[in-house]
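INSTRUCTION: Work out how this chain folds

Fields: amino acid sequence; protein backbone structure tokens

Chain under study, with its fold:
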Amino acid sequence: MSAVEPLVNTPLVDLRGSALDRRTLRMRLPRASAQQNAPVETVKPLLDDIRDRGRAAVAEATARFDGVESGTFRVPADALEDAARQLDPAVRAGLEEAIARVRTVSAAEVPSPRTTEVAPGAHVTTRHLPADRVGLYVPGGLAVYPSSVVMNAVPAQAAGVGSIALASPPQRETGLPHPTVLAAAHLLGLDEVWAIGGAQAIGAFAYGFADADGAQGTPEALEPVDIITGPGNAYVATAKSLVRDRVGIDAVAGPTEIIVLADADAEPALIAADLISQAEHDPLAAAVLVTESEDLARAVDACLGEAAGRARHQERIRESLAGAQSGIVLVDSQEAGVTVVNAYAGEHVELHVADPAAVAQRITNGGAVFVGAHSPVALGDYIAGSNHVLPTMGTAAFGDCLSVHAFLRVSQVIEYSRDALAQVADHITAVAEAENLPAHGEAVRVRFASTDQED
């Protein structure tokens, strides 16, 4: 295969012989474009309307975008119970196992308070406090995501959040979120669930609404939240970016992505299956293979064509695999491949190489890293115990996976004795004068004024 010969099913990027500096890689690696975000001029007026008119604006947006007209948005308790009762036993067992495993990992992440003695009589305690109230968003659209209920709710619960609200788009037939989403909420003990989707859900979480806001059915109120988490479409992502001056958010997420680093001995069919597993999410999903083996690249490309043709969602899979955000990247060596993977900073990283555990230690930019042939991304999507709400669009270079820490605030408690303050009083005064803030120094000096006069 020559450097310029195209593959049949997937775009080819040949980096052999190229300088792998950061600028080159950012320009040449497959990447979804920023157009994933909806225009601000489309979303901002909707958010402003919800801020000003509350529930009436949410109702109008729900009718317009979801085709649902309802007098109430909060899901009744009996609907949650019914959904759980009617849940397929096999799905219930899978969700319960996922909950247990994510809860185990989340519980281990909760930090304990730590008090440090800086000097005799001088103590600083660092504590981690849960947010008072959070809003969890679970998308609808092309798929159903009860797993996202688990991934958002369990860390919030483990963090000790006292008030948790969940929103998910209503179905046109019932006016309620998908029953599997409702069942997952019930399994987790969530009783505040709202049939609100899209940007209007983000606006409702950020601004809240009161009983009297355009009520046409049963009065109900949604209290604003402190933090909003959860994935969503372009409108949800844009809405989250616009309200983060008012609430905390986990991230502004783009479409899902997977990048696989593989050597010549990797199994092409397994790689193709994993690339397709993410491509089926969305036509804009990114699926990237990085390898030094031309033979493997050709074999994976062939497997992709065959497997996509058999897939239930083959149309969106083919669109994803053929898009500018996907491709097969040829490199000179495994070391070059590691450089490419770290520069890509992908949501999901898979390692199909010899000694994958050792290579994993060199992957510094990845939302979640899956080590070896028996750790597919699909495992992390559901039941590994890890979280599947991850940074996308290269933000794994600085962003975090969703975890207990997203729902915690770090606060410090400072306690100094008189003698301990006296030891540093002159230092404080000197630095305060250097900053031309003499009142700072005076606030310390005044505590010892009576002693100075006595002396």
The longest helix spans residues 89-109. The mean pLDDT is 92. Residues 345 and 394 are 5 Å apart (CA to CA).
